[in-house]
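Hey, can you fold this?
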Amino acid sequence: MNILLINHYAGSVEHGMEYRPFYMAREWKKLGHKTLITAASFSHVRSKQPEFKKKIFYESIKGINYLWLKTPSYNGNGVGRIFNMFSFISMLFKQGQAIAREFKPKAVIASSTYPLDIFPAFYISKLSKAKLIFEVHDLWPLSPKELGGYSKYHPFIQIMQIAEDFAYKHADKIVSILPKTKEYMISRGLDPLKFNYIPNGVLIENETKHLPDDIQKILKNLKNNGKFLVCYAGSHGLANALEYFIDAAYLLKDENVAFILVGRGPAKESLKQKAYSLKNVFFFDTIHKLSMPDLLSFMDALYIGLKKETLFRFGISPNKLMDYMLAGKPVIHAIDAGNDIVKESGCGISIEPENPNAVYSAVKNLMALDKNSLEIMGNKGKEFILKNHSYSILSAQFLDVIKGISIEN
């Protein structure tokens, strides 16, 4: 089966986030299916952009085929990003007939966070007489309304609302990455029989990379000095609420514990300034994804946090949490959401977000446990992830959704 996966922000192991399209396509290839990932040439979530000057460019990455569509670059979430979105949708419409004629998809997946890609996806699916699946990462336009304060009467929001409602009406199936969205979607006109939940996942990689020597040297020195290492690895954005992680480091500055932050993002410099006087906080740049297991192997506990947002009532599915749990390390989970797989699996401590005293208490509680108890706790998360979030499992579930659609030709 030929699968067209449209994801504006799709990345790869060479370009960085987001990885889900690449990993799904790689698993589908193992099962005998061919995927064409169609993405924009520029995405703010990638660490590296594809390099080309033509308006369209086909590329094979580790055996997975990509169609890159030229779009303008942008900074932030302003007009530039909106123009980038509409440029991608326009290019996709223009290439629709060629994609349908040359690739001949049997399934078309619209999966670009924002819902506008449902229109060209619908067009291509009709040309190809293909099955149409709408994959939901975030609830748009609800997300920009609740997080960005946009009015429901804003023209941008109204266009997004038309697209979302169109998707629920015309897609053959809906796949939600978030677990608690079904009732909301029904309120927007979704037939409940169309709904499917397939979360984010992890790929069990045999290939790994060692950490850079300078990072290894520092971590080994900390471990040799008996430090209890607590790590955050991921984007340093405002939403990640890392200022409370630093506040907890202040509270624990006289304890035998070190706080490790790995990654980049707009809040990183302010966080470094906040931690300037602390001797127990260490910042490192982004590492290769294949080096993540090596990094996490040094740690005694792993931290994830998000700011309080009502939107999280629909649940969350962060990739970094999956990586944490796969590492078999206890997790400090400072998120208030509609789901909590740390609590469900028993692999750590769930605490109130935006509360450095709660982080302090969680770290102290974990430090009080012996090595065996920490290992037992961490392994509960690993077992949970292997059972429920392996991409080999999730890709098969997605194929079952596609195969369950009957199309009248």
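Oh, and this one too while you're at it.
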Amino acid sequence: MRLVVATLLCASVLCFGQLSGRRAPGFSLPDSNFHRYDLQDYHGKWLLIDFMITQCPHCKALSKVLEQVKPRYANRIAILSIVIAPPETQATVAQYIREEKVTVPILFDQGQVA
């Protein structure tokens, strides 16, 4: 588990180290209950953003890892998953949440972020 988190953090530093100190573009996206999540709400926290598809086996595996990371680093890290709508719908996401027991918010992007 530590290796996965360390790998993700190191990869982000290596890939985006030159951009450190710059503000990320803002966004505000809804989840399936129409609750909006705004990037500004996470100011001062590490935010891990996961772009996913509900039918992807690799995404399902990563969701399980993120569910383990969430309680362990709850005060220091926030996690948001983002799906592209369409093809994802409220029904496909609700089924995914139910089957995979996901507690990480899954947000719907219609081209604003991706």
